[in-house]
Amino acid sequence: MQLPSKVKLVDVGPRDGLQNEKEPVPAAVKIALVHRLQDAGLRDIEVTSHVSPKWVPQMADAAEVMAGLARQPGVRYSVLTPNMKGFEAALQGKPDEVVIFGAASEAFSQRNINCSIAESIERFAPVVEAARAKGIHVRAVMSTAVGCPYEGEIAPERVEMFARLARQIGAQHLGVADTIGVGTPRKVQRAMEAALKHFELDAVSGHFHDTYGQALANTLACLQMGIWQYDASVAGLGGCPYAKGATGNVATEDVVFMLHGLGIETGIDLDKLVDAGKFISDFLGRKPNSRVATAVLNKRSG
Amino acid sequence: MQLPSKVKLVDVGPRDGLQNEKEPVPAAVKIALVHRLQDAGLRDIEVTSHVSPKWVPQMADAAEVMAGLARQPGVRYSVLTPNMKGFEAALQGKPDEVVIFGAASEAFSQRNINCSIAESIERFAPVVEAARAKGIHVRAVMSTAVGCPYEGEIAPERVEMFARLARQIGAQHLGVADTIGVGTPRKVQRAMEAALKHFELDAVSGHFHDTYGQALANTLACLQMGIWQYDASVAGLGGCPYAKGATGNVATEDVVFMLHGLGIETGIDLDKLVDAGKFISDFLGRKPNSRVATAVLNKRSG
Fold it and tell me: How far is CA B12 from CA A82, B9, B152, B249, in A?
């Protein structure tokens, strides 16, 4: 089994995770979470989203959160910027990376970002141009790359199409996201192969949900393809908006446990990461949605 | 990715799962669970254990459960028989398979079955001989094959030693069990490679715990070695006696979802399996400990 020797994890908890909380989390708590993540060794953190507070009140404090960060050198702080208005709002916070967020499924694009795939690409193009002109890294995320709650299975050709469009407008990185967690190892590999037709191995990452418990198996399958960048969410923050009570983002703790067990370096201190997850879970009044965190916390309490 | 086209799952829920419940489950409920499992397509079910009711009151009804089964042709009903006394008690129930249960870790053997590994093998030898004389299949299970709660990591040499001893006394099959769920894909593969020095590929199975969420990734790694037999427990029955509240046996539902997604046949109807898990979980007054069951039940309830 030939695997990468190092893996970079992007913790998307503060953004993708907390965006799905019913009650907005105070900016100070979000800032404290980012600080704990960077202290645990995370070098890539998706911090917030510059979107309309009317649609996403959970992220209304984006500017405050970015302004409040005690930044560490070597850490990349990224923000979602769905359009030029968001991008311009983001600039003051000096993000290291902006994220544009589309879909491989037409129906999901319509329902999630209220426009067709083609329209979304048109909307993203000036954002990419403006970001690159300012030397800001651009990551495109393709949601529903394996399955869609409205369209069912997504063919690899659809993934390739979105990847081609994202490449054409100048995105430097493509995140391949199994938004509803229905992917299994071979399906995920086929989606990745399609993405790799337009992006280099070093410019592709996996974003897996654990709704059906498949995230780590899918990660292993992608590691075997040489893919070395993955999103994950501390304490499994995020839930799954399409199935109440179900699991969403894979927990960073669980991914780290597997990677370290495989002898792969992440630069992350698992104990501190569990602490970060416990911190935010305590605030939210629930237990971390991570099997590793559960086992580690049980072990600690004897 | 070359994988087996078919996989056989052994549901260990009625035995390994319910043995870990504080309150003994009534025989009628156990029988109903076995019936639901066979109706869902399971062809291998670990039903009960013939052990001292003083030590394991949960299995005191072993004879009653075996006598109460409406057996289906083609289904293998297995029982644990730790010694000759248990084996003789088991005979009346006409099991298709008896299971002997040892450990790769000396400390675990001492604490779990109150004897050394060498003594356990001595105790098992007459059981194997008597079973084979009667044409009953014998499966040996090696617990703590990757890690031990008392000794830490277990070297593959220890696995090989237990495998050699089990083979010497005539066991026909070896189950390699990661009892505390600390295994990750490469470690599990190394344990399997050691087991395969003494047992053929068709005579080895994997038994993984999901305590750290690694069971499906470990299963995928073993599928890639050609291993096509796995234990699992419906609804994740079993818990983890070494970490309160943590997950034990991997849920059969989660394994089936991955296998079917990979295009591997199991003969199991996932919906009926989820029903079986819900049946026993409702009886126990909790939710199934399976991400797939959670997602499927959420989806059903709309």
Answer: 49, 9, 25, 9
The question of whether B240 is a catalytic residue gets the answer yes
Whether pLDDT at B58 is above 90 = yes
Task: Provide the pLDDT for residue A14.
Answer: 98
Tell me: pLDDT of A247 over 80.
no
Of B189, B217, B295, the CB nearest to A211: B295
CB nearest to A262's CB, from B185, B212, B245: B185
| Angle, alpha carbons A137-A138-A144 (nearest 5°) | 145
Residues A246, A233: Cα–Cα separation, whole Å: 15
Nearest alpha carbon to residue B292 among B276, A190, B284, B283? B276
Chain A partners of B261 at a C-beta cutoff of 8 Å? 182-187, 214
Q: How confident is the prediction for chain A on average, in pLDDT?
A: 96
CA distance A19 to A25: 9
* All domains in chain A, ordered by first residue: 8-301 (3.20.20.70)
Tokens of A279: 């911190």
Cβ-defined contact of B189 to A245 (cutoff 8 Å): no
Q: What is the pTM of this model?
A: 0.96
3-state per-residue secondary structure call for B61-93: CHHHHHHHCCCCCCCEEEEECCCHHHHHHHHCC
> A245–B214: do the CB atoms touch at under 8 Å?
no
* φ/ψ of residue B21, rounded to 5: -80, 140
Whether B201 has a pLDDT exceeding 80, the answer reads: yes
Beta strands in B144-291 (DSSP E): 147-148, 152-153, 173-178, 204-208, 229-232
pLDDT in tens, A174-220: 999 999 999 999 999 999 999 999 999 999 999 999 999 999 999 99
Calculate mean pLDDT across residues A149-166: 97
CA distance to partner chain A, nearest, from residue B95 (Å)? 33
**Cβ pair A261:B183 closer than 8 A:** yes
**Adjacent-strand bridge partners of A138:** A98
Beta bridge partners of B79: B48, B98
- Residues of B within 8 A of A213 (CB-CB) are 210, 213, 216, 251, 254, 257-258, 290-292
Which residue of chain A is at minimal alpha-carbon distance from B299?
A243
ipTM of the complex: 0.95
Report the residue from B212, B219, B299 with minimal CB separation from A257: B212
| Among the listed residues B216, B217, B212, the one whose alpha carbon sits nearest the alpha carbon of residue B232 | B216
d(C-alpha A13, C-alpha B203), whole Å: 44
CB contact under 8 A, B220 and A220: yes
